[in-house]
Write a structure and sequence with these properties.
With about 850 residues, the chain is mainly alpha-helical. It has 31 helices and 2 strands. It folds into 4 domains: about 210 residues, Alpha Horseshoe (Serine Threonine Protein Phosphatase 5, Tetratricopeptide repeat); about 180 residues, Alpha Horseshoe (Serine Threonine Protein Phosphatase 5, Tetratricopeptide repeat); about 110 residues, Serine Threonine Protein Phosphatase 5, Tetratricopeptide repeat; about 120 residues. Component of the nuclear cap-binding complex (CBC), a heterodimer composed of ABH1/CBP80 and CBP20 that interacts with m7GpppG-capped RNA.
Length: about 850
Amino acid sequence: IHTNQPPTKPNLRAPTETKTLDPSRLLPAPGTSLSSLLSATAAAAAMSAGWRTLLLRIGDRCPEYGGTADHKEHIEICYNVLSREYEHSKDDIFEFLLQCAEQLPHKIPFFGVLIGLINLENEDFAKGIVDATQANLQDALHTENRDRIRILLRFLCGLMCSKVISPNSIIETYETLLSSAATILDEDAGNPSWQPRADFYVYCILASLPWGGSELFEQAPDELERVLVGIQSYISIRRHFDDIAFSVFETDEGNSPNKKDFMEDLWERMQLLSRNGWKVKSVPKPHLSFEAQLVVGKSHRFHPVSCPPPTFTMSSSEILKGQEKHEANLKYPQRLRRLHIFPTNKAENMQPVDRFVVEEYILDVLLFFNGCRKECAFYLVSLPVSFRYEYLMAETIFSQLLLLPNPPFRPIYYTLVIIDLCKALPAAFPSVVVAAVHALFDRISNMDTECRTRLILWFSHHLSNFQFIWPWQEWANVKGLPKWAPQRVFVQEVLEREIRLSYFEKIKQSIEDAAELEGLLPPKAGPNFRYHTDESKESTEGHRISKELVSMVRGRKTTRDIILWVEEQIVPANGTKFAVDVVSQTLLDIGSKSFTHLITVLERYGQIISKLCPDEEMQLLLMDEVSAYWKNSTQMTAIAIDRMMGYRLISNLAIVKWVFSPANVDQFHVSDRPWEILRNTVSKTYNRISDLRKEIQTLRKSIQVAKEASAKAIKELEEAKSILEIVEGQPVSSERPGRLRRLQGFADKAKEEEVTIEESLEAKQALLARGLEEGKELLRLLFKSFVDVLTERLPPVSADGDVPNLRAGDPNVTFPASDPEAATMEIDDENGADNNR
């Protein structure tokens, strides 16, 4: 299951099974102990739940198991129900059990014991599970399904603990993966550019050891040691991965060249686990309660698997090698980049391997329940661990939300999960979130700009779900910071986003305890119409033309009539720029009541704007007018420009040039306004290309279907024509003329459909080629604009190659500044910087 697509989830609301037993048969005899009475109550509750629900809820403190948390009791109850339903639902149980093991991986130890107990009574069922797991793992390796590979290796460890497969089967699978990883790094036999795949294979081995390491150490110590030696050799020859570019914080300790990368860190954790006797508190061991029964079960053979061969390259070009490395990193990205938000004296104290296991639990739940926020929160708060982990859970979720370059899922998903966790753990999690926000706020000046934007969007949305309550007085001091100070900009942008989600008066009321922050509120939203009719103002030519245009729109004049009026009366007398000013301001005012009004105006009268703004120069002027009209609303400015781009009234290149105009460049560090417009432009350009690719793929499939239908119709026609009979000594068609005409019509229609689809495909391919060129031009212009802006403002590198330290206030660094605040940028420390750097 790929992380960028919603996986298929078990049916969490499965229908209740109709076949149940009489709960009275489970009632204890008089004098039974309280524990037995509770067991009977749990069993009675289980009778009213279906076997699917019991499988899903095993290990949870839930009504289906009478509210108890006894894992041994859960397994016994579930096994008894499965045994009773086996004859009627054998295939369903088989499929659902495999599905649960793959999509509820934090419960794999429980599913492993269930399969082990079934193996005692029905070896064929367990053997089928083993064979299906082998086939699924083999398929996952060749389709590069990362999550499935990782989870199936963990599942194999669960089966081994319950004696369903032998330890040697696990060792053989480990050695296959390790051999493939070593081959990939070989310069002659492999391709080191694909090291991310090799790292992933070794990561899967290491990540499964907390679930099976102790059993392997007891039953196959020499073989396990051989695998560990192989991993040590691999770690020593692999290239250290430096991910500074993906660090959330600029001055993070991750910038240290001596810091271990993710693989080296995981290997160190497993070495520590080995020295501690493979004892893991975070992994339940339910098989130990059934060891006397499971030990007599038959261990089935797990057939060997094979890894896909390395991808070879015959080119020595560094560019092509770089492209290969990029492709490999995209296919095998690092799953987690830890974000250490809380100090060590505040977060939970747990062993390194336990921290890793709980992180795996959390990431798995986020992965498989990304479409079920309520169930996601339920499973996150009921992980099978005996210690508290709220701080670690917050750090892991925030690490995913702020993951660079992109989070695994849309940021709104993490927002909803955090909200549900606050409601599920009202006494614990809200305070953790508050502490996380304060910790991130303290280090906001060192945070990556993209991460700042995500944090602003999350925080404003989060507060909107809790009545916008926040201790703003603690941040009131930011009003005295320079306008560009990250902490001040953060508070300012959060307030602006809150107003989008509510209204001005409500947000102003929410900060009444911090009156100083009222100066950071944006102006009250509303249009700034230049030609508004007011008796106190002198009527100008612009007012007259604007009023006449409004009358024409209300009079339902056609777009052509208005264009002729503009071209014949307005442009000759006043010039094109004046016409753009009046027409754009007036049309924006007509569409200012709502988003729907704006769309309607652009759809009906967009041709007028298109006629007046055919080139980039006029489009830049048009965007100036949009910005002036909506100067009090960042949101409406972004929406209007985005919609105009959607209707091809403004080109993406013109938008980039406008964003990098001097007036907007001055806003880069004090407002998100230009960045929001730039993000929308790049996203829309990319989405156009993606949509065209999807449409082309669909059309290609349609062409294949159309060709098959056309060939079939022609074949039927030819067969009908080929059936002859002799009439008066001459061969004539024996088919009725009506049927022949009908078949001919079908063949012609099928051929016409095929031609139509081919023409559509050619048109879409032409649009795609054009879109790709536009995308290239956009990126060229974007990077050139950044280079120009930075070149103007950054000091040159010295002749010795020394780069000035901008953050430390290099005396040789000077900044062009138009106001006193900007002149002190390089020496001002009151901007929320991390003083511990």
